[in-house]
Amino acid sequence: MGTCDVLIVGSGIIGLTSAYHIKRLNPDLDILVIDQFSMAGQGDTAKSAGAFRAFFSSRTNFLLANTSIDFYRHVQEELKFDLGMRFNGYLFLLAKGKYVELKGLIDEVGKKGVPYSFVDTNELKEYGVNTEVSHDEEAALMGLEDVYVGLLIKKAGILKPERLVEFYEGECKRLGVRFLFNTKVKALLREPLKPLGIPGEPFPWQDSEITGVITQDGKMIKARKKVILATGSWTPQLLEPLGLPSVIRSKKRQIFVIKAETPELRRLLFYKGFSNEGFAPFTILPKHMFFRPSPEEESFWIGYADPYTGFKFEENPLPEERFYIEGIYPVLVKYFPQFTDMRPSTSWAGLYDVNPVDEGPLVYEVSNVIVAAGTSGSGIMKADAIGRVVAAVLKGKDEAELFGSKVIKVKDLSLSDRSFEPERLVL
Question: Rounded CA gap, 105 and 363, in Å?
Fold first, then answer.
């Protein structure tokens, strides 16, 4: 049986930021991070599109993302650790109805000091967008609308998830955090607060709490202080068998890689008109579709955040070529004909751990366990701030200090006393 002061289950980006900030604030604590994979960040963190933006209507969303982005920039520019962070921007393509609906809200969000601009159709056409699709019979059948304007978010872009993992893991090890890989957790370990030494306890009438975990091979690992679940979509699998609250649900997300093999696609990929980075912005099409430039690979990562994807947990989600052919491709080529006849060179799939109530991250304590999950697809984007909140909860603080001396109330991310404004800027 192994023991530690704080046991963190999950070495994805949330587990790593939590371990780093806990150890930074509590250097004498013995912290152990365990994970079912052979290396850190090999779960859904490795499947991320690795994009970020600081443009939200929700005060809490903005605070979590903006301070995390500022910290990542600090790491890259001042600490000289290359995260592959590039401020190539986000470009949302808006139909007229969506523009009219959101114009006032966009202006309101812009007053927070985050730069943005509107892009007219002439510039969008120069970029390569087919802005007029309504005359196309197939497009009409799919309910596709003309692009009226582009919304360019400038404090936004891409980074390399693996480099972010390397930074936090390296800092954790430097501070003395221990890691144990290839260790799959089968269940949480529940023990009586006042053990009687009777086989089979805890009994229903005994007060009990979670004291550790039981691994797949039957070993126990115990925490003297707290267990932290940074287990993403696996969280309900551990909490719900014990009747502990978890609102987390899983949604499958897939990414398909298209190589920029033609002159038209290369021109699109290395379009210089929207930033100083020398390549295209992270571009969001109507119907919740996007492509992310990957200039080093000379390719595009293409995905579709289908809002009607059902909630389903999969241990090892796999991409489906049919999803690209029938779901993504017909829309993609209407707005960007450059992708005509292109097929994926590779693909992968992962899970979003979704908080279906308000799609905001959750950090809450129950039965000696701190749960940090529900990032709903924005884990990397908000990870540093979430790790700081976890560290504050562990110390019993009412507030967490985020990067740049910003402060957030820890209850705002809790389950029972939550104060999280619904995101109104849904594009």
Answer: 28
Mention every residue, 6+ apart, whose C-beta is less than 8 A from residue 419.
60, 409, 411, 412
> In the chain, what is the straight-line distance between the N-terminal and C-terminal CA atoms, in Å?
50
Which pLDDT tens digit goes with each residue over 343-391?
Answer: 999 999 999 999 999 999 999 999 999 999 999 999 999 999 999 999 9
Buried b or exposed e, range 30-53, using 16+ CB within 10 angstroms: bbbbbbbbeebbbbbbbbbbbbbb
Region of 252 (left: φ > 0; alpha: ψ -120 to 50; beta: rest) is: beta
Is the separation of the CB atoms in 223 and 212 below 8 Å? yes
Distance CA 178, CA 342 (A): 46
Helix axes 13-25 and 161-175, enclosed angle (nearest 10): 30
The band of 308, judged by pLDDT with boundaries at 50, 70 and 90, is confident
User: What are the distances in angstroms from CA 222 to CA 9, 26, 192, 225?
Assistant: 12, 19, 14, 9
Which residues lie closer than 8 Å to 160 by C-beta, 6 or more apart?
50, 83, 84
CA atoms within 13 A on the CB side of 289: 19
**Radius of gyration from C-alpha coordinates of the chain:** 23
Q: Which CATH class is domain 2-50+163-247+357-413?
A: alpha beta
**Has this prediction a pTM greater than 0.85?**
yes
48 or 426: which leads in pLDDT: 48
Query: No. of H helices and E strands in the chain?
Result: 11, 20
User: Quick one: 90-154+250-352 is in which CATH superfamily?
Assistant: D-Amino Acid Oxidase, subunit A, domain 2 (3.30.9.10)
DSSP annotation of 49 reads: -
- Asked if 116 and 106 count as a contact pair (C-beta separation under 8 A), the reply is yes
Helix or strand holding residue 60 (H, E):
helix 59-77
Nearest partner of 290 among 258, 250, 260, 248, judged by Cα = 258
Domain parsing of the chain, residue ranges: 2-50+163-247+357-413, 90-154+250-352
Buried b (16+ CB within 10 A) or exposed e, 130-161: bbebeeeeebeeeebbbbbbbbbbbbbbbbbb
